[in-house]
Amino acid sequence: MDFKEKAIIRLQHWIDHNKHHHEEYELFAEQLEAAGKEKSARSIREMMDYTQKSTECMEEALKNLD
Questions:
Q1: What is d(CA 57, CA 8) in angstroms, rounded to the nearest whole number?
Q2: What is the 3-state secondary structure (H, E, C) of the chain?
Q3: Res 27: pLDDT
Q4: In the chain, where the domains are located
Q5: How far apart, in whole angstroms, are the C-alpha atoms of residue 27 and residue 48?
Q6: Distance of alpha carbon 30 from alpha carbon 23, whole angstroms
Q7: Closest listed residue to residue 34, CA positions, set 17, 54, 20, 26
Q8: Cα–Cα distance between 41 and 35 in angstroms, integer?
Q9: pLDDT digits (tens, 9 = 90+) for 11-54
């Protein structure tokens, strides 16, 4: 397996991993809100925005491997 193939596998794994965590973060933010912890939920949602940007950067990197 050459470097490009390994890079594709690694990036795709990280993208999938981030997306899975994003779903978990959303559920946790909802739970925080339900518990009356709105400030904490806002912080988690802010972190989710950064995580989404991270995922978009990896998707761009994956696209540019060609």
A1: 14
A2: CCHHHHHHHHHHHHHHHHHHHHHHHHHHHHHHHHCCCHHHHHHHHHHHHHHHHHHHHHHHHHHCCC
A3: 97
A4: 3-63
A5: 11
A6: 11
A7: 26
A8: 10
A9: 999 999 999 999 999 999 999 999 999 999 999 999 999 999 99
Are the C-beta atoms of residues 61 and 11 closer than 8 Å to each other?
A: yes
pTM for this prediction = 0.84
Residue 66: band (very low, low, confident or very high) from pLDDT cuts 50, 70, 90: confident
Cα separation, 66 vs 51, whole angstroms: 24
Amino acid at 52: Q
State how far the alpha carbon of 14 is from the alpha carbons of 26, 44, 51, in Å: 18, 20, 11
